[in-house]
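Technical appendix A lists one of the benchmark inputs used to test multi-chain prediction within the project. The record comprises two sequence entries:
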Amino acid sequence: MKLDKSLEARKLLHTTVYSQCFSPCGHYLATCNNYGKISIFSVSKALAPDASEGNWKQIFSFQACEDGALYCLATTGDLLISAGNGPICAWKWKEILDKSPRIVWSFSIPKRGPFSNPEVNTLVVDQQETGTALFAGCGDKNVYSWDLESGKQVLCMSGHTDYVHDISLKSDGNTLASASEDGSVNIWDVRDSAEPVYSIVPHKTESCCRPSLGKWVGCVAMDSSNDWLVCGGGPKMSLWHLRSMTATSVFDTPKACQQTVQFYDDMILSAGTEPFVNHWFVNGDQKAKVPCTPTSVFNVSVNKNDDKYKVLCASGSSYKIDVCTNFGYRAFSFSLTPD
Amino acid sequence: MSKEEKPEKRKRSIKKENPEQKRIKQESSSKESKLTTSLFYSEEAEVDTRSPEKDVEVFKSTCSDIRQTMLDIKSLKDKKASHDELEDKRVSVMLDFMNLKKLNRLAHIRCKKVREQTNDAKQRIDHYHLQLQNLLYEIMHLEKEITKCLEFKSKDEEIELVTLDDFYKTAPSDISRTDTTKTDPHLQRLARLEWELEQRKQLAKKLKDSKQSKEGLAQEIKNKQEYLENLQPKLKIVLEATKPVQEYLDMPFDQIREQQETARHLPPPLYVLYMQTSAYRQACDKDLQVSIIGDLDAAKAIKSSGKVVEEDSDSDQEEQEHSKKSKRRRKTVDSRVQERKQQALKKHPLAVKLDINCKDGNSLHLTFNFLITLEIITVNISLTLAESNISSISGSDLLAPESVLTDLYPGDHGKTSPNPANKYELRKLGLKDFTSYITEVGWPYLWAQWLGGLQFLENNAVNTPEEDVSFAHMQQTIRRLKQRVRSRLCLMKQTAAFETGNVVVDPEYQGLFPSKIVSRLTSWKRSTYEDFAVLPHAQALVDDEVVEQSDIFFTTVIERGSAKMTAQIVMTHDYPKVAPVFVVSVLWQHERTAANDKHIKEMEEEVNVHHEELMNSKSCDTVLSNQMQRLLMCFDIYLETEAAGSEEEGPMEISKEKIYNRMLRGPSRSKPYRYCPDIGIFTHR
């Protein structure tokens, strides 16, 4: 693709897509990048049998954040929530697809001190019968939660000594795990949030510590059976059994720190600072190492909302987002366009 | 003929007949009188008296008498009667026969009479019939004559007369004679015709008068013209006399006029160029100087001889013919090619020279030539630099005449002819592509064509230069030329400074950077596209065609302690409109590039994308230095944060010297590359 020498084209070369989110219907993919833009791609059109290169470009993009980068996206039934620098904003999916998005509501992180400019690194939406809650892990070392029906901040979980990279919720919504730059993964009970229930420190464990790469834990995930937790970052990625709090398997990625991890079926998908998406068995063996375009992968998402368009999308420090229909290899790439 | 006359005629005709009839009768009666003596009485008269019916009766009785007598005779004969009785009977029969004869005669006479009577009547009828026909023919004839008379149009009806009302209004009373003419249409018509005649006479007189006056005026004009023509040479003498006065007063009107004289012999595009640049110089920019150089006589010769279009095949044929007729030595192929080339690339003998003087003492000299057959303008460039300029080794060709004006407008590299027809012409003449002749004839830049008013659109060679094109581009082009010279000189200065290891930052931008930067520039060299393209971390730029072969490449090494950073810098000819692109690789403990270290990518982003903060005005000539300074600053941060963040024990090679409130931020753990000048600390974007 020929890019001209304009500033827009150069910006494109330096784009990093931090997060992705599929629409509730499963037909669209929303991505956010380091310039604060949200771009929408049409998965259904791109997977149609007569799709051409034009269908692999974004169908719409808008500037969601004026202050800087957007780091994370989450979705409820009809809202897309974006966060990063600046306040957490919510947009209606319908308005986005009509190309006229407006902020529906926004939450701000309380600022402490003149130089503090806390960013939101991660968002999780928890939908229970009692209500919908939004959890955010922030750069001011806390995890906040809001009740989406009332719009009030409900919880503030502080305890980390450095900023929070990633959080993960159990399916019953009562237990939360937060991974932080200070090297620890704290397990919290949502109902009683004064102190973490337990703290896992991978860099102090012999089997996974890697001092040359640092002690920070960049990603954490808990599986659906609620017994297992996997986390990765500076130390090697490791699988922990929550009842006994021991590391049962270690996943070796030499020289690469994992930045995103999730459980999928009976596999673990992870990716990080090398241009590969790793598929692992639970016992630590590597099932596949799929090459991808971004040199540093920040997000891997699987479309669970529509079985017809079940694809895996990997995004990171490139303006291209890899799409895999068969998770074993890259089928094609969505690409952002300057506009 | 009137009806009274008709019966008279009839009478006359009848009367005519009557004497005739009388004559015939007299004749017949005389004949009879001759033939029959007084013994015979006229039987004709008898006929009139006796009635026919009686005669028929008499005839019948006589016949029966005869029959009877015959019978009697027969009976007598039978009886043997006496001869006397027979004789009596015979005599009576004879007498009866005599009666019969008389009766027959009478009958005949009667017939004859009746026939005569019918003839008469018939004749009379015919006569009348003929008369009737005659009269009918006469009637028809007369009717025709009447219609002919009625249709007769006299010539006077063809004349268009003024309307009745106008006539009564305008005609003088002796002609119109209103009282008589109003009643009598004939008189009215006569009056109108008279008036028409009057009017026509008047108009004819007017025409004659106007013709005379016209001739008088024509004569006057001729006289005046002669007078003026005689004036011309006298004025010339006066002008000559003023020349010494002009020189004394130092007002070179003549010189200007002479230049304009020469300008008239310029080919049209150069003429447009000359006029527009002179106008621009007078109106806006006193730093320009425009003059015409070249051979005026040759130009005059060309103008008078007109354009001679030679076709290759024709000239060949002519040559062949000539060689057959006169044993002339045939020209060799080479010399013919030379000739053709010379013909095709022939320049017009006059050229326009434009000197642009910049404020810092440098000046750019452009000589515009016009190629006659190819119909394009080419430029020869030369620079005279002010004394104080430093030259740099790596940037030595920045001011070379070939490349200093490349890409003045985007895409205008000046290597091919802008006139699409030239390709065909050159090929037809068997010559190579235009690019190979550029060293001889000059550079055919697009802006040079525009200044001369020539605009070459796709598939459409415009032959007539248009002033509007030149005007539209003049100001911009001059401005761009000046800017280009200035920025190239600045670039030279900057590269010279880099070669000595200094990054010279303009005082106005110094506030954008912290006061202490430890990394140092250790080497600066010129590089090439091939060298750039083989680097693995440069592949992305090459694949996406962000860099091209025609760009300018540099490579530099920056060091701090044991860490070494090699940066490739690519800039286009259009610097500083398009800021240079930096591609970096760091060697510190192990090789890191944008491909394997996201912090390096972010460093590149900081330098490549956010360079607009380094420029106060729209395009700043020192943006390269500013970017370089920023790169050094970011390298410092990179090394310091990397060292601080590593868990290794042992003395740290690189100590933390910069102030930042947070070392890492966000999911990508970005380093604080952004410098806040007012507070003096580093933060994240």
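Chain B is about 55% helix and 10% strand. Chain B touches chain A through 34 residues (CB under 8 Å). Comparable benchmark entries are summarised in Table A2.
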